[in-house]
Amino acid sequence: MHARHGITVEIANEVVSDPERVVIVPDYNSSSANSIRVIGYSLLAGAIVTVIVLVDDGVVHGVNGWIANTRDQQLYREEGDHGQD
User: How many C-beta atoms lie closer than 10 Å to residue 1's C-beta?
Assistant: First the structure.
């Protein structure tokens, strides 16, 4: 996550903990339908961020993350009045 997209574990944890996060099960781009897309705001990143996770035996594992694309930003904003730009 960090090497390719600059998303640290701390940023990913912030996104997953966002009380206004959007969770899409399964991730709309998943070919296996096993991954979950979480879209949330990160103060550390100063942006809406997309994090892809997998759940294995009740444990959530971060797989990838990046600054949210236009589609994910729109999905996040449509879920409520987040006040983010």
Answer: 17
